[in-house]
Backbone:
């Protein structure tokens, strides 16, 4: 079985116990990717020393990008030599031109291959433009080339939410080879954002097979984020099944699963570490275990008995901290203390809330925003990105048409406006499915999101001069894939914090955002705060909220703000001001509900859970956790 090599980054990982396949959890995906890059680089250096080729199998996408960035750094700073490396791409959408922005080939060229000394002739791509009649011969030749070189020295893989590996979809044969396959509905749904619509996602793809994968000498599987936690548990802990192709990887002699903490949260060793293990009973662990016991027994905190603790395997806790009544009462008091009607306190404060997209603020903490304003605090909202790619073309048509007619009625720019309208309309008319918008269209869509955020801020009672539109440059690619943040992004955020000098900061700490923007925005804010702290500048309290995708687990909640029915109605009105995101948002994720419905359902569910454990019954609640100064949120 594989093992994690010694290095400073390895110190941030811990192995998952009581599973049959080596599985390692890292503080963050950044640490995980650095460790994987070390393993890949080690193989390359070993093969270089022997005068042999290093054969790699790679995938494109957000999961491995950190691996490629670290390999590029090692090439530039440590002279890692790729001249004797051969790369095979694992999959490709069928029907895409090589230069289309969603092409795996283009992604790898832009994010990795052009930044290292990898010979072009050493790169093997699955070709999505092969004519239908030639596909079988192409796939056979691709497979033969892999076999001729002796298969892969290292194969770096991701895992889909359905358990697919590459495009080896559910019920794939474990002996399959390189071929053309129909894509699973879940695969196409997951790719919808990249193609700007599920309708634009190809129905078929090319992929190497599970039999080909299993012949690799070493396999490394990456899984990052809360949205991967469910399939990670099924893949690692449940029986091997054709329904989940990834489970077949467990039979490989040299495989490791590399996770960040978010992806590991449903594994037994992480979710219920007290089962079959001796643990230290810290206050956080006590709270977590007792709240879990409430869920298992369907009882309120103060109704738990010694028998309940024993029945569900909490003998240790009962023995060390018992009896049940005392433990439960302690947790009851802890949870009672999380209820906070005035999250900013009662004394006047300057408060700065960061919103990754222009509607994340009102969706995630709209009720709290209203409460902060009502309590007399000076609330500043910072919209970190424009959100322009999440606007439908028909909304842009509508605004341009309205602008043209308005200018005509008031005799404004009578010559220039029709020219601009024709240019934008023609750009939208000629745009192919999945193609990025022109600069002018992106500007129109940015202004749509800008105007909606201003309207929502007005509902919440926030003066216009306290709304800050940062338009961070990392976001401005016109596609779902973003650039890495640069000094310019960090400086914009730092300048705002220095200007406002807040007493309290709110940040989106949401790892479940399927497009990654929330995570990047959080890291930018946290990095700036860490820089300020290192310079001796005091850091205010930082509270983290979650977005439209998921709420904080009950045991993690540190502040819960009760909302009355009128608070929820006002919050809904603010969300409704984001008209371009209503009636079917462009990037809804895998949840069919509208954002306002998700928000209300989540807020009411949080209130219901508080009531179920024996605390007062509220109409709805918004939840927050305090930033601990680290990046493992």
Residues:
């Amino acid at each position: 079985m594989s093992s994690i090599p010694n290095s400073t980054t390895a110190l941030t990982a811990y192995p998952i116990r009581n599973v049959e396949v080596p599985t390692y959890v890292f503080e963050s995906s950044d640490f995980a990717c650095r460790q994987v890059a070390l393993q890949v680089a080690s193989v390359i250096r070993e093969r270089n020393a022997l005068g042999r080729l290093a054969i790699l199998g790679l995938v494109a996408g957000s999961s491995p990008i950190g691996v490629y960035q670290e390999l590029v750094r090692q090439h530039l700073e440590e002279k890692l030599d790729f001249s004797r490396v051969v790369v095979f791409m694992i999959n490709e959408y069928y029907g895409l031109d090589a230069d289309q922005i969603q092409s795996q080939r283009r992604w790898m060229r832009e994010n990795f291959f052009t930044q290292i000394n990898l010979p072009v002739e050493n790169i093997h791509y699955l070709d999505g433009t092969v004519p239908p009649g030639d596909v079988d011969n192409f796939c056979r030749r691709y497979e033969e080339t892999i076999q001729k070189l002796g298969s892969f020295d290292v194969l770096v893989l991701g895992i889909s939410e359905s358990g697919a590996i590459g495009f080896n979809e559910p019920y794939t044969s474990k002996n399959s080879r390189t071929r053309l396959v129909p894509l699973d509905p879940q695969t196409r749904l997951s790719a919808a954002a990249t193609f700007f619509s599920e309708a634009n996602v190809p129905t078929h793809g090319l992929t190497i097979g599970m039999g080909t994968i299993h012949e690799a000498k070493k396999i490394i599987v990456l899984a990052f984020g809360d949205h991967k936690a469910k399939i990670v548990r099924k893949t690692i802990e449940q029986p091997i099944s054709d329904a989940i192709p990834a489970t077949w990887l467990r039979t490989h002699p040299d495989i490791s699963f590399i996770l960040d903490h978010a992806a590991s949260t449903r594994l037994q060793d992480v979710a219920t570490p007290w089962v079959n293990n001796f643990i230290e009973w810290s206050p956080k662990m006590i709270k977590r275990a007792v709240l879990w016991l409430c869920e298992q027994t369907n009882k309120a905190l103060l109704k738990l008995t010694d028998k309940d603790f024993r029945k569900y395997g909490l003998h240790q806790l009962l023995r060390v901290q018992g009896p049940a009544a005392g433990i439960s009462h302690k947790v009851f008091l802890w949870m009672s203390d999380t209820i906070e009607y005035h999250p900013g306190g009662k004394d006047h404060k300057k408060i700065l809330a960061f919103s990754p997209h222009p509607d994340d603020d009102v969706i995630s903490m709209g009720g709290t925003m209203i409460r902060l304003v009502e309590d007399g605090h000076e609330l500043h909202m910072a919209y970190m990105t424009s959100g322009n790619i999440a606007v439908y073309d028909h909304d842009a048509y509508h605004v341009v048409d309205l602008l043209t007619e308005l200018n005509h009625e008031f005799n404004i720019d009578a010559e220039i406006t029709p020219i601009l309208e024709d240019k934008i309309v023609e750009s939208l008319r000629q745009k192919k499915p999945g193609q990025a918008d022109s600069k002018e269209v992106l500007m129109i869509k940015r202004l749509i999101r800008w105007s909606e955020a201003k309207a929502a801020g007005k509902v919440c009672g926030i003066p216009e001069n306290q709304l800050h539109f940062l338009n961070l440059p990392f976001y401005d690619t016109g596609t779902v894939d973003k650039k890495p943040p640069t000094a310019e992004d960090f400086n914009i955020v730092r300048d705002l914090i220095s200007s406002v000098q807040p007493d309290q900061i709110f940040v989106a700490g949401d790892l479940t955002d399927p497009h990654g923007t929330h995570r990047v925005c959080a890291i930018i804010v946290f990095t700036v705060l860490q820089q300020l702290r290192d310079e001796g500048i005091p850091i205010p309290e930082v509270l983290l909220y979650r977005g439209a995708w998921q709420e904080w687990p009950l045991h993690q909640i540190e502040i819960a703000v009760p909302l009355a029915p009128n608070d929820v109605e006002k919050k809904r009105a603010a969300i409704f001001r984001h008209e371009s995101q209503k009636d079917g948002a462009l990037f809804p994720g895998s949840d069919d509900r509208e954002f306002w419905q998700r928000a209300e359902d989540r807020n009411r569910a949080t209130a219901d859970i508080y009531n179920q454990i024996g605390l007062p019954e509220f109409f709805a609640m918004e939840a927050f956790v305090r930033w601990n100064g680290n990046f493992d949120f």
In short: Residues 1-11 have pLDDT under 50 and may be disordered.
